Every structure is written in C-alpha cells, then in structure tokens.
C-alpha cells in the first residue's frame, strides 16, 4: 500500500536522478561549450592532358555544325564524378579567335562544347598553365579564361591581368581550404609574340622566384593543403628526368602536399616522397610525375595509357592534414576511325564494351600491363 511517507520517499529519489540529468542537458545546450567537430576529409581525383586533335574535332562535329564531346567522355564520366573534387589539365585554347577555325596539333583551339562535356562529366578544376595555352596568342588566353570561368570551373595558370595573376587560387572542398599553384616550364616560344607588358601576366611559369611568390601567397592565406600542378619534364619519357625530380623534392620541402604533373603525354611513376623541410623536420608529399593523356588522339602504345590519380586529404587529430588512400584508375583511350573514347582499362578488361573491336581490346590489355609494371605495386589499381 502506498502511504504518504512512501510516496514522498519515491519523489525524493526521483529528484536525485533527474536533477543531475537536467544539469547535464543544460550544459550540453550551452552555446558557450563548443561541440566536438568531426575531422574533415575530401576525396580528390586528377587526370592529365585534355586535348582535341583534328580527328576528335571531326567526330565531334554534328550535322548542324555544332559539336558534341560527350561521347568521348561517356564511359569515364562516372569515375570522374566519383570524388568530392576532380582536377584536369586543359591543353587547348577555347573559342574561335584571330579569324581562324578550330584546329588540333600543332595549334590547339577547341569549341566551347568541350567544356560542356567536361563539366557534365564531373570535372571541377582546370589548370591552364601548359605549352599550348598561347597557341592563339593573348586573345586565346583571354577567351579561354573567360569561357572556363563562365562554365563554372575553378581554374589557375592563365590570367587576364596582373591583378588576376597576383590573386591566390583557393578552392574549399568539404570545409578544407585547398591552395593551387599552376605553372608551366614551356609555352613553345609563343610568348615571344606577346607584348612585354602582356608577357608579365598571361601565363604562370615554373621559375624559382615565381613559384616561391605563389607559394607564399597561399601560406599568407592559411590554406589547409597546397597542391602544385606543374607542366614539366620531357615529352614521351616514361621516367622523370633528374631536373624534374629535383624540383619535386624542393616543392615538398617548401610546403607542397601534392604534386600532379603533366606534359610528357605518357604516364610516369607515382610516389610518396619524404624530404627534410625548411624547418629541418621531415615532410612527406604525394608526387605524380606525369598522369599522361586523358583525352587525345596521340594514337600509339604509351600515349594511349594514362592515370586517374585518387587520394584522400584527411585532417589529423592533432592538427594539419595528411594524404591517404592513394590509388589509381588505369585509363585507356580507344582510338578508331569512328571513335575516340577514354575508358577505365581495368573495368573493361574481362568484359569489353560492345563498341571495342578486337584490336582495341588487345591494345588496352597491353596498356594495362604497361601501367602495372610502371606503377609501384603498393599503389592499388581501381576499376572506377
């Protein structure tokens, strides 16, 4: 039987339990107590050279005179989009200029439809610092930067003014502030056709002083991660030369976290490079010396095989970021009289796409084998 005394005793016990809980709830709701923030991370993917040779322009041209490059990227679009942020090297100017039509090698100029296809396929960032960005001189640079910007791409490496050149290139991905340095060692001597004052800003060059200035701008902005995208090395060489390796070591020592190289048009090795930093402490960075051609009609053995580099930027518990989960998707560019299309080689090794003929399948398997011998076996190959 519940007596008055028993009821009062039960209420007292209940208050003993509820009061601490109420105090805890009040403390948890107190805005002055900062909540624990989850560690930030971002999955990044990067590919090499995007080019449009004459054959690609021909098969992209529609009956009404327009262009459509979507078929050339249709089988690789899912892989491009399977990341938080995707980077590519645009190695062609965009938009007609100087009274000339569209053209491939040696003077690249492509229709805006190429940007449509890249955007729809999932590319977020385009580096414009390469040896073909002056193929239509200054007008080509101005057009290209304008169109790339209008299509919503983040970009770096080519500029319309001194003010634009001095502006640090920063993108925020999942709350991570990533700074980019896009520079090229070459512009095929086309810079000699620019006025001296235009030469000062049009293209970012991979020179010691200029690199240090770009790096310092990013450090002044307190970015979380620095990615360098150099256009360097020797064309068609499958191993980086000594000069390139020296530059890579210097970049990592100065504070770069990831290097994504291009220009050789063939794939080169990938490594996690550890060097002594400027403060005397060891620093480790990811170096992809050359990712090779992503989209082109350089139809020969090593030029048809390339890499999509996949890695994660992971915030550390004690502060700072590290590069983790490095892998690659081995790529193959299918080139026939009727088709140019980039594919994931591993995805189609055992079950080729219906559009691939026997020769294409044979060459793709050879390309896959070449890449497997080139890339350290500790770097996993991904299907997509």
The fraction of residues in strands falls at 25-35%
CATH architecture: 4-Layer Sandwich
Can you tell me the number of structural domains? Answer: 1
Q: Kindly, what is the distance between the CA atoms of the first and last residues, rounded to a whole number of angstroms? A: 71 Å
State Rg. Answer: 26 Å
Strand element count: 16
Structure description:
This protein is an alpha/beta fold and 384 residues long. It has 12 helices and 16 strands.
Keywords:
384 residues, Purple Acid Phosphatase, chain A, domain 2, 16 strands, 6-stranded mixed beta sheet, 8-stranded mixed beta sheet, alpha/beta
Helices, strands, pairings?
Elements (H helix, E strand, L loop, with lengths): L3 H26 L11 E10 L3 H7 L9 H4 L3 H5 L3 E6 L2 E2 L14 E2 L2 H9 L3 E3 L9 H14 L3 E3 L5 H4 L3 E5 L2 E9 L11 H4 L8 H13 L4 E7 L10 H13 L3 E3 L9 E7 L5 E7 L4 E3 L9 E11 L5 E15 L4 E5 H4 L9 H17 L10
